[in-house]
Amino acid sequence: MTNADILNELIIIYRNEKNIKTLLPYKTSIIEKIYSLIQSQQTYLNALKKNQIIKNIIEQELDTAKYFLKEYLKIRIKKLQIYFLTSKDLLSSKEIIFQEKIVNLYKEKIFM
After folding, report:
1. Which of 30, 75, 77, 92 would bridge with 26, disulfide CB 3.0–4.6 Å?
2. Greatest distance between any 2 Cα atoms in the chain
3. GO biological process annotations for this chain's record (predicted)?
């Protein structure tokens, strides 16, 4: 899979998540690939010295990847705050922790 393919896949899962009211299954494989892409491109960017055109292209790709990753995760957090009783099967490990904290806060609020 090329960097462009990975980025396109991220954009697709972002759009799907944005356009559907409930939470969709967390896409672990593509998110891991995006994190890896960001890390490797950042390392490559830091190693580049002279070629400003290539640096600009890589910076643009990095900015795009970071933007869509951030927006995807923000949408999921917002949905999880609303649909906090969502099945754990749809969530990442960090989202499960967040979900448990939300549930505990609601329990505390109800039983106070």
Report:
1. 92
2. 63
3. DNA-templated DNA replication; double-strand break repair via break-induced replication
First to last CA, the chain: 52
The residue-averaged pLDDT of 71-96 equals: 93
Q: How far apart are CA 24 and CA 58, in angstroms?
A: 30
Domains in the chain, ordered, with CATH?
A: 3-110 (1.20.58.1030)
Asked if 13 contacts 30 with a C-beta cutoff of 8 angstroms, the reply is: yes
pLDDT of residue 85: 87
Q: Is the pLDDT of residue 110 over 90?
A: no
- What one-character-per-residue DSSP string does 9-62 give? HHHHHHHHHHHSSSPPPP-HHHHHHHHHHHHHHHHHHHH--S-HHHHHHHHHHH
How many other C-beta atoms are found inside a 10 Å radius of the C-beta of residue 95?
Answer: 19
pTM for this entry: 0.88
